[in-house]
Amino acid sequence: MPTITLAPLRADGVSVVYGVRRVLTDVSLTVAPGHRLGLIGENGAGKSTLLRVLSGNETPDSGVLSRPERTGFLWQEVRFEPGETLAALLEHALADVRAIERELEEAAVALGGDDPSAAARYDAALAAAERAELWSVDARRDELLAGLGVGDIPLARRLSEVSGGQRSRFALAALLLGRPDALLLDEPTNHLDDEAAAFLERQLKGWAGPVIFASHDRAFLDAVATGLLDLDPARSGTTVFGGGYSAYLAEKAAERARWEKQFADEQQELKELKHAVDVTARSIAWSGKVRDNDKFVKSVKGNALDRQISRRIRNAEGRLDDLRGSQVAKPPAHLAFAGIPSGFQALGDDAGVLVHARGIRIPGRLSMAEFAVPANARILVTGANGAGKSTLLAVLAGRLDPESGAVQRRRGVRIALLEQDVRFADPNSTPRRIYQASVGERRAEAVPLTSLGIIAPRDVDRPVGALSVGQQRRLALALIVARPPHLFLLDEPTNHLSLSLATELEEALGAYPGAVVVASHDRWLRSGWTGDVVHLA
Question: Is the model's pTM score more than 0.85?
């Protein structure tokens, strides 16, 4: 039987432009079989776009692609009709495997004929069947569904009859069941709990073909990736890092230090050159004494000095022009809450409990005897999907009234909730207009939206409906950062945010002067949490 060598997945010079906006510029990569490349970068950097291009679902404006024939793609959203059954979703993913099965049967029949190529055909079909693990489909299906936490859901159910998270898990199971030669995954750990994420890690580490995935899950990146491709164009463009997320953080910290030093050095040189051109060079005068009133000597030496001064000025001006044209941009400021508004501390450090919930009950969603939030609380709420984390935050924020129980809020307390799913009423409005309407013209002028470093300048005047999910969530965060509340509630704060912004947000929350309650399944965030933890069963 011939040995089948899996092909790598390659892209060379891929560029994508949407209208006047360039999303990807000259991206090149090669992922060999058995290697796993994580895509990272700011929201809108083009991670999902690159995956669509690599999968063949989108055509780039330029560039050359090559991929294994059987390349599977996991979309962020399940692309199946709500009326279809879960069994149909799984069977649809097996279309390639069924085709391999038919080819193997036909090749076996052909062995009894006179075709001299029949043996080679059969060997190729057999190799493809083994690579697709044809004979273990049923067992693998049960293993995948159980490992992803949906093994107890009847396959006769329609997609509309299960939750969005369950649909995503079935779509992931279906993709893995088909055993494609290469995998492209867009946020594969969305909606996965710890056990399911760990199960997926094991699956991908044992994958024979190339794997490329975009993820905001830092623990997943650290565990799975053999390399990272940073699409953030802020400084050095597309950059490949070897190793997982921890190695990436160390390199990014070193790069940030180099960037800050280069910027400081260039600004100092600019200052000195300006001084040389505007002050020092022009103040130089020939001070040599002329003996015997020799006007000829004075003229000659004076002209020589003038030429020397002129040359120095031209050299300084030339260097100044060069540096002005090539100087690096100022490193973006780290996220910080943009000045605490006057009156923020009116409640005082001794404000006691800001919100106190007792006997809260919402049938099928939440049942809690007591939950108190002191003025300077740091509380992490954990629990499986469906345990009631989002419901609890909505109750604390006053967005949802419990069927029974009571919620007391301190008089004058201001509460803000960063929701998982952000929706703005007018999709045609822009971030700039939404920001001004939310924080008021005076504060919007004092703290401009672009100064927060959360929304890219190119996006502030785009219709909010044209922004990605992550970009819209960044706007929601900016509205809160610009006007910090006494109690900040965050529902899965790292979902849909870039890795760098998620890390900066966590660090900023550590010094937040008010109370913070975070609901999260983010393993990276939870591993570094130093405050109180409340687990919902």
Answer: no
